[in-house]
Amino acid sequence: MLSSVMASPKGSRSQKMKLPIFTRKGTLEVPSPTEKDWSKDDEDDWVFKDPDQEQDSLPQPYRMINKMVNSLFDRSWEMIEARDTSKKAELRRTLPTIYHPLRESKLNTMPNCMDVSQDYVFIGGSKGFSIYNLHNAKQLYVWEKLKVDVISIWATDLGSEILIAPVDEMGIVRLFYFYKDGLYLIKAINELEDASKQTTCIKMEISKGGNFAALLLQGAGDIWLDVYKLPKESWIKEVQYPQLAVNTKKKIRQQLQLNTPDSVTADSLDTDMNISFRGDVKLSLPVQIMKIKPPKPITVWLRSTSSFPVA
Which positions are tagged coiled coil (predicted)? Predict the structure, then answer.
């Protein structure tokens, strides 16, 4: 009976099946009883052996040729992956647009700050600020009537006019109104005659459209926010009448310039169109509508409860 089982097809088939064998390189060691003492073996220490390949290994020189072909395929695949990675990185890379300068303008002094509005550049520096044309980089006007430097400047587009707000080293902010070829001083917002009571402007913001202005002021150990309403509708009306007289003079000057010889260049014409400061024109002052102070710290007083009787 035992011989019949050994001779059955199922038994012979199981004898013919060969499973892969894992063998470890080097000498074998008896592991320690505790698992934590077992060494972490690398996968490289284990070799996968196919029983069929042990019996049917290729003879030389075909075994060497097989190794060379496999090595060639591996190197080719690595090169393909490297090229594909570099191509994907090149496609993901977005080159920024480079804008080359149109013209170079040399400044006499080192600027401290600058701002851009419409077609003009406003640069704050020593004892005031200057106005430059954004297209031809020409200096149009210089206002230098301060004893200290301008450390920050804001320029807000109001439509056909520009509101300029420079802040000097003393923290005093001044409002200027720039309309066509005229520059008007509106007011020094936080300038006081008593230097001991002088406040400092830390930050200033003008709303979009120029209807409101907010100033963060500091002085005497306190800090607060002042909000002003800017009467820009009144400003445009107050500068229109003197502007009519200036336009008449400008037309006469332009007619004279058209009759000049051909030797007169366009640069000289631009110089004649410089901005002028209109200190004699008084504009409406901003109206303070709000003053916001930080809340005072809350002081909590703790009262002791009645003592419990001791047993």
Answer: none
